[in-house]
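tool_call: predict_structure(chain=1)
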Amino acid sequence: MSLYEMRKSYRLGTFLEKDISGDPMVQFRKWLGEATEGKLPDWVEANAMTLSTCDAAGELSSRIVLLKGLEDGKFWFYTNYDSLKAEQMAANPRVSLCFLWQHIQRQVRIRGTVQKAPREQSVRYFNSRPRDSQLGALVSQQSRVIASRDVLEEQWTQLQQRYTEGEIPCPDNWGGYCVTPISIEFWQGRESRLHDRLRYRIDDGHWIVERLSP
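tool_result:
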């Protein structure tokens, strides 16, 4: 099949003004809940989101990270503070997030500003992670060039031997971020590419809803 011929017909739902909440975070929780309902294929990771960042010179970068919190009207995730994304967010706090839920033919697009999480929150979340994930954070020098896979696995083995029991310390260069949204767009696929797009936009401290052309 050629790329020209690859297409889907979107018929699973509608999203009309009468269906929405006045609060975009309430609406997002509703859609996230619906994205996790039922018996899902193993490939579905509903809290996966594309994080796009940009440095002061306009250099763009995108990658998939995992949403790990929805508190205080913000979207929370965790990463290495020495990574490329962290360098770009330090230079330019404007970011975007995008959730794609193919199995229900929906997207959510978010624009906002990012800031670091309080240290105590990062440590609390780190301590809740599986031990293998904790060790992975200690091993990783994210985004840095390494000599080989063997070097990575040797460091992993050394840390396993070092931390056979007891608490694994949260690295100083690892922790959380939160994104405060300024706009949140909910996209529902529709037939004939006449998709439903409803966008919440902050205006003078209040959320307003606008329908966008597909």
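agent: The helical segments are 24-35, 84-91, 119-128, 131-139, 149-162. Proceeding to next step.
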